[in-house]
Design a protein that fits this description.
This protein has one domain. Strand 10 (97-106) and strand 11 (115-119) form a beta hairpin. Helices cover 0% and strands 44% of the residues. It is globular. By secondary structure, it is an all-beta fold. This is DUF6917 domain-containing protein. Residues 15-139 form the DUF6917 domain. It comes from Tepidanaerobacter syntrophicus.
């Protein structure tokens, strides 16, 4: 049996109901790159376990799973409060402010953490956004 995403078996969204992910920033990042070369995996979803820490990276390139992202701004790392599933297209909020939607996931640093790549209009880093440690992250 192959991968249902790679084999394009899903004809509609299989996620009938799911809880939003909640977490808090544990690191605020600064920095931007024009040629980062993040390879978004083909799969549009990832399961994130409670207490895991993952990185958020923002791009203003409208990309989807399976594509490469170059223009990025680093947002930060967050700790997951309760296990959840997140999917490309899910809205990402920090302190109630929408920063974008999940474009996909890069596994460069696995098994340490996922790079969660977010598509948004303003490629502004976490530090430039004046984010703080413990700021609330909600994805869903």
């Amino acid at each position: 049996m192959g991968d249902p995403y790679k084999d394009k078996m899903f004809k509609s969204n299989p996620y009938a109901k799911k809880k939003p992910l909640k977490g808090n920033l544990v690191v605020v990042l600064d920095g931007k790159y024009e040629n980062r070369g993040l390879n978004l995996i083909q799969q549009p979803s990832r399961c994130l376990a409670a207490n895991d820490v993952h990185e958020m990276i923002l791009t203003d390139e409208d990309k989807k799973p399976g594509e490469v992202v170059n223009k990025i701004a680093y947002i930060g790392f967050f700790a997951v409060k309760e296990s959840a599933v997140i999917v490309a297209g899910d809205e990402v909020k920090i302190n109630g402010e929408i920063i974008g939607k999940i474009a996909g996931f890069d596994e460069t640093h696995m098994p340490n953490h996922y790079n969660i790549v977010i598509y948004g209009k303003d490629r502004i880093s976490g530090n430039e956004r004046n984010l703080n440690l413990d700021d609330e992250v909600i994805i869903g």
